[in-house]
Amino acid sequence: MPDFTENQFVIARTMLINSNNKAVVVGLLAESDKIKNFNNSTWVTCTGTIKKGNYNGDMPLLEILSIQNSEIPEDEFVYSPNVSSNVLASFK
Q1: Is the distance from CB of 76 to CB of 84 less than 8 angstroms?
Q2: Angle at CA 19, nearest 5°, toward 29 and 17?
Q3: What is the DSSP code string of 5-21?
């Protein structure tokens, strides 16, 4: 488990990065006292402000202003700009 503070977590999605179906998790460190109300791997919709944060050095941090449960999207992936439209069509 990462050494986050009690109110830190990562907002993340799985990104398809090439036509060989290689995927990586991409995310942003976030902070909210409300995170205690959510289980791991819960889909959420949030708004916030990006500010300079610190986690083993300077990095972007999303300071959450609002967060709520959301439905699982029809397409759970996000796609790298270099993924062709043919690959995208095969996932739909």
Answers
A1: no
A2: 10
A3: -TTEEEEEEEEE-STT-
Predicted local distance difference test score (pLDDT) of residue 29: 96
Say which amino acid occupies 41. S
CA 55 to chain centre: 16
Tokens describing residue 1: 């488990």
pTM for the whole thing?
Answer: 0.78
Q: In this predicted model, what pLDDT tens digit does every residue of 7-43 receive, in sequence order?
A: 999 999 999 887 777 889 999 999 999 999 999 999 9
* DSSP characters over 59-72: EEEEEEEEEEE-PP
CB proximity list for 80: less than 8 A, separation 6 or greater: 15, 16, 17, 18
Does position 68 have pLDDT exceeding 60, yes or no?
yes
